[in-house]
């Protein structure tokens, strides 16, 4: 049986209100990259490890990270 931390989730970005803090890139560099021209994050991979992606989403100050099957409570 796979460890729950190794489960993957589908990830998306809604950058309309992105502050450009780069927290997602720092917390989950396997999934998020940085576009220097646009000064915005980009998806390097549309899936990522559940634990890492959910942590990045929870810390996103503008709620830009979309995770399939997960909704922020606030």
What strand line-up does the widest sheet have?
4-1-5
Q: Report the oligomer.
A: single chain
CATH class: Alpha Beta
How do the helices and strands follow one another from N- to C-terminus? EHEEEHE
User: What coarse outline follows from CA principal-axis ratios?
Assistant: globular
CATH architecture: 2-Layer Sandwich
Please tag this protein with its features.
alpha+beta; 74 residues; 5 strands; Alpha-Beta Plaits
Structure description:
This protein has 74 residues and is α+β, with helices and mostly antiparallel strands. It has a single domain (13-67), classed as 2-Layer Sandwich (Alpha-Beta Plaits), CATH 3.30.70.20. The protein is built from two helices and five strands. The chain has helices spanning 23-27, 50-59; strands at 8-13, 32-35, 40-43, 47-49, 65-67. The strands form two sheets. The protein has a three-stranded antiparallel sheet with strand order 4-1-5. Strands 2-3 form a two-stranded antiparallel sheet. The protein starts with 7 loop residues before the first strand and ends in a 7-residue tail after the last strand. Residues 1-5 have low confidence and may be disordered.
